[in-house]
Design a protein that fits this description.
By secondary structure, this protein is an alpha+beta fold. It has four helices and nine strands; from the N terminus they run βββββββββαααα. The strands form two sheets. The protein has a five-stranded antiparallel β-sheet with strand order 5-4-7-2-9, with no helix packed on it. β4 (about 40-45) and β5 (about 50-60) form a beta hairpin. The radius of gyration is 27 Å and the shape is elongated.
Length: about 240
């Protein structure tokens, strides 16, 4: 079963296949050491943080007897959830979270349409947290505040090694070109190195636009090193004479 502890709001959620304008029956078992305890329920379009077009955002019925499992059932109308063209549809998630100050246990979660099969996978958590994930409204919980540590956490030592080799070669090539007088390589070297230095104390690449910026800087630095320095063409022309 799933146990949610009190504190800052933590959403335990799963992406579900929802069709618009359909009725769904949500069932699950609830247990708590305190009677009257409820659990939050949300069925919304959601990717990571922001929710949109929620068909449900409320509390379940309260537990009448403490310390025993109690079945909970609720009808949900999907409204506009799952509508739109395939390229503009946002994922729909069923989220469970605690409102109170006590520990809540949840098990046997089912989301069943009037005509169709259960939309929940691993409903009884017999396979651990497979198909389930967590989210929080506090964005700082997503940051490790160090790019090398974030890469180590996400990709392991192979990721750190690949990242280090890629930018080690890039900075080495740009540094050699700058030493030979290539001013564009010097600018690219400074920009890339500055990004990496700031990345020691912040993740930076957890936002796609910043990761794209870093890769563009690295590729620009590598391309500059393959181009002749500004005075190279003049020296080559002087050596061979005028055309």
């Amino acid at each position: 079963f799933l146990r949610i502890a009190p504190g800052s709001t933590l959403y335990v959620e799963q992406i579900v296949a929802i069709e618009p304008h359909q009725r769904y029956r949500l069932r699950f078992d609830l247990r708590s050491a305190t009677s009257g305890t409820t659990v939050g329920i949300a069925l919304c379009e959601k990717w990571m943080l922001a929710s949109s077009r929620c068909a449900a955002w409320n509390k379940s019925q309260g537990i009448t007897r403490a310390g025993i499992w109690q079945p909970v059932e609720q009808l949900i109308n999907s409204d506009e959830l799952g509508s739109g063209r395939w390229f503009s549809q946002r994922p729909v998630k069923l989220s469970l979270f605690t409102h109170g100050s006590t520990v809540v246990d949840i098990d046997n979660i089912h989301l069943i349409p009037e005509h169709g099969t259960d939309r929940i996978t691993n409903a009884d958590f017999s396979h651990g947290m497979d198909h389930w994930y967590f989210a929080t409204d506090e964005h700082l919980a997503w940051h490790i505040k160090s790019m090398p540590l974030a890469i180590l956490f996400d990709q392991g030592w192979f990721g750190v090694l690949g990242f280090g080799l890629f930018f080690g070669v890039t900075l080495s090539l740009a540094g050699r070109a700058a030493w030979r007088g290539n001013h564009a390589a010097g600018v690219s070297l400074a920009a890339t190195a500055g990004f990496l230095v700031v990345g020691l104390f912040d993740t930076l690449i957890d936002a796609p636009r910043f990761l794209f910026l870093l890769l563009v800087l690295a590729l620009f630095a590598a391309q500059i090193t393959r181009s002749p320095s500004p005075g190279a063409s003049d020296k080559l022309r002087a050596h061979h004479g005028p055309d």
